[in-house]
Amino acid sequence: MPDSDPHVTFDRSRQTRIGLEEAVLAEPKTDAQIAAIVADAIAEGRRLLLTRLIEAQHAALARDLRERLDYCPLSRTAILGPLPRQNNQPAVALVSAGTSDAAVATETERVLSYSGLGATRITDVGVAGLWRLLRHEETLRRMQVVIVFAGMDAALPSVVAGLVPGLVIAVPTSVGYGVAAGGRAALDAALASCAPGVLVTNIDNGYGAACAALRFARVTGGG
Amino acid sequence: MPDSDPHVTFDRSRQTRIGLEEAVLAEPKTDAQIAAIVADAIAEGRRLLLTRLIEAQHAALARDLRERLDYCPLSRTAILGPLPRQNNQPAVALVSAGTSDAAVATETERVLSYSGLGATRITDVGVAGLWRLLRHEETLRRMQVVIVFAGMDAALPSVVAGLVPGLVIAVPTSVGYGVAAGGRAALDAALASCAPGVLVTNIDNGYGAACAALRFARVTGGG
Amino acid sequence: MPDSDPHVTFDRSRQTRIGLEEAVLAEPKTDAQIAAIVADAIAEGRRLLLTRLIEAQHAALARDLRERLDYCPLSRTAILGPLPRQNNQPAVALVSAGTSDAAVATETERVLSYSGLGATRITDVGVAGLWRLLRHEETLRRMQVVIVFAGMDAALPSVVAGLVPGLVIAVPTSVGYGVAAGGRAALDAALASCAPGVLVTNIDNGYGAACAALRFARVTGGG
Amino acid sequence: MPDSDPHVTFDRSRQTRIGLEEAVLAEPKTDAQIAAIVADAIAEGRRLLLTRLIEAQHAALARDLRERLDYCPLSRTAILGPLPRQNNQPAVALVSAGTSDAAVATETERVLSYSGLGATRITDVGVAGLWRLLRHEETLRRMQVVIVFAGMDAALPSVVAGLVPGLVIAVPTSVGYGVAAGGRAALDAALASCAPGVLVTNIDNGYGAACAALRFARVTGGG
Amino acid sequence: MPDSDPHVTFDRSRQTRIGLEEAVLAEPKTDAQIAAIVADAIAEGRRLLLTRLIEAQHAALARDLRERLDYCPLSRTAILGPLPRQNNQPAVALVSAGTSDAAVATETERVLSYSGLGATRITDVGVAGLWRLLRHEETLRRMQVVIVFAGMDAALPSVVAGLVPGLVIAVPTSVGYGVAAGGRAALDAALASCAPGVLVTNIDNGYGAACAALRFARVTGGG
Amino acid sequence: MPDSDPHVTFDRSRQTRIGLEEAVLAEPKTDAQIAAIVADAIAEGRRLLLTRLIEAQHAALARDLRERLDYCPLSRTAILGPLPRQNNQPAVALVSAGTSDAAVATETERVLSYSGLGATRITDVGVAGLWRLLRHEETLRRMQVVIVFAGMDAALPSVVAGLVPGLVIAVPTSVGYGVAAGGRAALDAALASCAPGVLVTNIDNGYGAACAALRFARVTGGG
Amino acid sequence: MPDSDPHVTFDRSRQTRIGLEEAVLAEPKTDAQIAAIVADAIAEGRRLLLTRLIEAQHAALARDLRERLDYCPLSRTAILGPLPRQNNQPAVALVSAGTSDAAVATETERVLSYSGLGATRITDVGVAGLWRLLRHEETLRRMQVVIVFAGMDAALPSVVAGLVPGLVIAVPTSVGYGVAAGGRAALDAALASCAPGVLVTNIDNGYGAACAALRFARVTGGG
Amino acid sequence: MPDSDPHVTFDRSRQTRIGLEEAVLAEPKTDAQIAAIVADAIAEGRRLLLTRLIEAQHAALARDLRERLDYCPLSRTAILGPLPRQNNQPAVALVSAGTSDAAVATETERVLSYSGLGATRITDVGVAGLWRLLRHEETLRRMQVVIVFAGMDAALPSVVAGLVPGLVIAVPTSVGYGVAAGGRAALDAALASCAPGVLVTNIDNGYGAACAALRFARVTGGG
Question: PurE domain: from which residue to which, for each copy (chains A, B, C, D, E, F, G, H) (predicted)?
Answer without folding.
Answer: 90-222
